[in-house]
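Here is my example:
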Amino acid sequence: MPWTTEQKIFIVEAYFQQTSIHAAQFQFRERFGCREFPVRSMIYRWVNKFRTHGTVHNLNRKDTYRQSDSGRPKSSRTPHNVAAVRDSVVHKPSKSVRRRSQELRINRESVRRILIADLHMYPYRVQIKQKPTPDDMRKRVIMCQWFCNKIDAVPDFLDTVWFSDEAYFLLSGHVNSKNNIFWGSTHPEHCLQTPWHSVKCTA
C-alpha cells in the first residue's frame, strides 16, 4: 500500500531511536492504529535513502523538496533518438522493435514508446489472402447463377443443404502474420498474395 510522508518519517525516526526494526514496526502500529505496517526491506530502503540523500521523498520525480530529477536513468526519448527511429521506420517499416533497438542501441521499451507516443505509429499486421484468377471468378458467377436457379425451381432447396466449416493445413509453409508487422501512422494496405491452389490438406 502507498505510505504517506508522515508515516515514512515516523518509522525512520523510530528506527534511529530504537535501532530495531521490530520495535519501530510496533511503535508504527500504535501511532497510526493500523494492522499493516512497512516490511523490513522497505524500512531499510527508507533509512538508507535518508542517510544518503537526507530525505524520504521520491527521488524519481520533481517535487517541492527537490528541484531536479535523480534515481532512475534519464529517458531515451530525446529529439535525436526520435529522429533516428523515424528514419529507421522510413527505411524499413517491417523491422521488429527488438531488432530496431539493437541496431539503434536504444532501449527496446524506449523505442516502443517513441513509435507510439512520439511518432503516433501502430504495428499493422500483414494480411494473407488468396490470389483469385479470372477463371476462378468465372466459376463463382456460374455457381451463383446455378444456386439461384435451383432455389427458384425447388423452394425448399436450402433446407436440404448442409453448410460446414473447414480448415486448410498448407504443406508448403505459410507466413505467420503475428511476426510480420509494418509500423506506420496509416494503414499500409499491404497484402501477401498466395496461390489459390497451393498444396494443402483440408479438414
About this structure: Residues 65-69 have pLDDT under 50 and may be disordered. The longest strand covers residues 127-131. The chain is about 45% helix and 10% strand. The two ends are 54 Å apart (CA to CA).
